[in-house]
Amino acid sequence: MSDPGLRRTVLLDVARLTASYPGPSGALLAVEDASFRVHPGETLALVGESGCGKSTIALAMLRLVEPGKITGGRIVFDGTDLMTLGERDMRSVRGASIGLVFQEPAAALNPVMRIGTQVGEALRIHRGLSRKEAWAEAVRLLGLVALPDPAGQARAYPHELSGGMKQRAMLAIALSCSPALLIADEPTTALDVTIQAQILALLRRLKETLHLTVLLIAHDMGVVAENADRVGVMYAGRLVEEAPVAALFADPKHPYTAGLLRSVPRSAEPTGDRRLPTLPGGVPDPASPPPGCRFHPRCPEVFEPCPSIDPQDVPVGPGRRVACLLYAETRA
């Protein structure tokens, strides 16, 4: 299915996406009814605690959630619903139209294959380059991602590279076929703070020079503040708030978002013995999520309908929506 009008204004349109994984006593809902859009040239960040479903969404964009399943919704990319494609057609999307940067480059790279060969593999598959042409282009791409001595590093094996160098190599692989969408799944999690800053600065530069559209998966609100145009906040498999980045940081609407922002350390403020604010409790078990609003057992704003009514999205300003009963008609 193709929609030329949608293709012009929205690159990625995800509607009511639901995905689950097998569990010992039945399916575990990792993502439920997630809907969002990514426009050409922007960066949308999905943020939330570990286990909230962010990485499942990233993998679902490429239909790589095995052993899980996508059980509902649609994923329209550049006007085509990816859920309608066969596996052969999906292979032509992965790595070509959509690039993916994993959070653990050491696990994603083949330990017995030279870096240049791994970067060139997608070029040979998707662009039909010869081995020699693919190698030359791989060296160019390694230089593009600021890997020192790209010609020499192309001959190296992954174990010979530092963590930051491995992540640059992964970025070169993801960009090798000039994808329209780059998915960066917590790309700096395994790196020290200095290297994190370098990789994020590189991502921003490449986004501008290559006119990339980025879906950024993150748990660090500082990373989100510096790199995103819009933010989607996830909790227990659901998107609970979406807003432009400046508006969300200035005035969070959902109590969970407000709690996340309160827990961010502020280096300009002396802490002394003061503890950072934290959210009470923990993320609910996906096998038995609480009824009603999933955040209600931890919410400081909880009131009578929250344990029994499932909140729906409510518009709360330009480009903003929140799934919270504080803003629903039942509160009026």
Fraction in helix: 25-40%
Query: Got a strand count?
Result: 12
Number of helices: 12
**Which range does the strand content fall in?**
15-25%
Low-confidence regions: 1-7
Q: Write down the Rg.
A: 21 Å
Q: If you average the pLDDT, what whole number results? A: 91
Note the overall shape. Answer: globular
Distance between the termini: 41 Å
Which strand order do you get reading across the main beta sheet?
Answer: 6-7-8-3-9-10-12-11
Biggest sheet record: 8 strands, mixed
Would you list the SSEs in sequence order as H and E?
A: HEEEHEEHEHHHHHEHEHEEHHEE
SSE class: alpha/beta
So what's the oligomer here? single chain
Q: Can you put this structure into words, describing what you see?
A:
Helices cover 33% and strands 23% of the residues. It contains 12 helices and 12 strands. Helix 5 crosses helix 6 (131-144), helix 5 runs parallel beside helix 8 and helix 6 packs across helix 8 (163-175). It is globular and about 65 Å long. It starts with a helix and ends in a 9-residue tail after the last strand.
Secondary structure topology:
Blueprint: H1 4-9, E1 12-23, E2 26-38, E3 43-47, H2 54-60, E4 69-77, E5 80-81, H3 87-93, E6 98-101, H4 105-108, H5 115-127, H6 131-144, H7 150-154, H8 163-175, E7 181-185, H9 193-210, E8 213-218, H10 221-227, E9 230-235, E10 238-244, H11 245-250, H12 255-262, E11 313-317, E12 320-323
Parallel strand pairs: 3-8, 3-9, 6-7, 7-8
Antiparallel strand pairs: 1-2, 1-4, 4-5, 9-10, 10-12, 11-12
Helix pairs in contact: 5-6, 5-8, 6-8
